[in-house]
Specification:
Oligomer: heterodimer
Radius of gyration of chain A: 23 Å
Mean pLDDT of chain B: 83
Number of domains of chain B: 2
Low-confidence stretches of chain A: 1-11
Structural class of chain B: alpha+beta
Low-confidence stretches of chain B: 1-26, 63-72
CATH class of chain A: Mainly Beta
Strand content of chain B: 15-25%
Strand order of the largest sheet of chain A: 8-7-6-5-4-3-15-14-13-12-11-10-9
Strand content of chain A: 35-45%
Largest interface: A-B, 51 and 70 residues
Shape of chain A: globular
Mean pLDDT of chain A: 90
Largest sheet of chain A: 13 strands, antiparallel
Distance between the termini of chain B: 18 Å
Chain lengths: 286, 312
Amino acid sequence: MSKVRGVPKVPVLVVAVVALAAGTASAQQALDRATALRAAADALGMVRWSDIGAGTTRLPGIDVVNTMEFWASGTIDSGGRAMKAEYHAALGYNPAAMRVETTTGGTGAAAQRTIQTVREPFAWDESEIGAGLVPGKGTATPAMAALRERALLLWTLPYGVVKAALAAGEKTTVSRESGATIVTFPLDGVLAGVTVRATLDAGNLITRVETRPDNAALTALATVTEYSNYADRAEVLTDIKTPGRIVRKQGGRTVIDIEVKKWETNNLYLVFPVPSNVKAAATPSR
Amino acid sequence: MPIAAARLVAVAAALVVASGALLAQGGPPRRTTNAPPAPSGPTPRTADGRPDLTGVWNALGNNLNGIPNQMSNNGIVIESATAARDLHSGLRIPVFPRNTTRPQNYEEGERAAALLRRVGSNRPIYKPEHWETVKNLDHNSNEEDPSNNCMPAGIPRGGVPSYIGQQKDHLLLIYPGEGGLIATQTMYRMIPTDGRQHTPLQELDGTYTGEAIGHWEGDTLVVDTWGYSANTWFDQIGGYFHSENMRTVERFTRNGNTLTWTVTVHDPDVLLEPWTSTPRVAVLNPNPKAVLPESLPCSERDLNNLVTKEHH
């Protein structure tokens, strides 16, 4: 009987040890995740609180990044060719939206201007900023086929990476490779099926963001973006760090290579209302 | 250092000293949420059965961070040390514990406050031709904010009044001026509830508080106002200018010792659609003998000497 009684003790012990180890590993992973994401958020200046006039209130910090706008120069891909371009992006995370205005061919009559906008789950092109909202003021053309590619641009910016990694919760993992911190997580919503792998430098700034779609045929969603030369480039200083250079590749080909001139971070007035014809024509993909 | 900035530093220092003294005396516990407190007590009623809004509604004090007395005016409610959400969109906002006990210096606090006050999603949607104007007004608000230089904040920027006196056929609302941090004048409004109609708009000279008329919809006081001048912005931040055709509809609802206020702004000249504010909650001063203190005199702003664009 003692043997019979003793037999199950070993599996129970093993299970207990394994469970304890797993629990410890899980707890350690959670700790690593929280530590790494907090460090990344702090490095970017995303976590803030203020006690001005707070009296006896002491609130915790919150993620203060919502709307941003930046201006840059460099090259963008245009039909397989690198073209000199002026690049102007307005973006927000609540709601998730981005408007990218590019001008190629100089500033004269030959200049070609495009305005590509996304507000999940809609994407459209504008003939002018805010086109299609007021009768007779420009044309908004639905561009739902570009929805995921445009949304990816928003969520692979450093702030989008931190927000999405936090939102992914336990699906986010943290590891160390060659001395660097690697944060890996799946995106959701319109970008479900895309995995992000972000590299943090010694100062916890995000320097490289790689995206891989589950479906290898979606080559536009297989990207590598490198960020460097971080600083506060705003006229209204906020202590939020923004990259000074952005290089983005799709399938190994450089599609964006720009130097940032100014990056305003003060949650400025940027709105992205969806034109009624875009709502009517588009079938949301989620 | 500009005079105004020096005064702000002095005020901030005084607040730190005062709060330290309060804690040393075992003062009130520190709140770690900006969620409105649960209503308590009965809702008093007047002889004609209406909720009685009479009282001094300043129990939460004042705050630039979107907390009291204009509760949640940045639209983000921090429910606990681990949870926050945007009241307009419902989006969960990541919360992080403070990782230092070092007090912020004025610059750090100012920059953080500026971000915190603008982080919410509830933004009025202007017609596209005004988007750049709104952005630039906010960007340059040190020079452009019409409430600087001791001018009235106007309605609805005044938010929740600090005093309401309710009579059978009218109400009296008082908005004390902010002499220190927000340099505005005291405003008062006398709002008839006797069933009268508005004066035709073209017969009114625009004013900071407009022509207000109140009526009751159930237990909610509804105040309909037009006849504004275009000299104000309609919210605390954002460069939210308006035309002389702005019309506002405010709703005041008392529940026990709390008063919830919202405003809907109609301005088809500049807005693409009407905009409704995030609800703000004020709390009744618990002292039944409370009176409004005298407003501080409006402070000099030294705007011409400002060389940076930081602002709260």
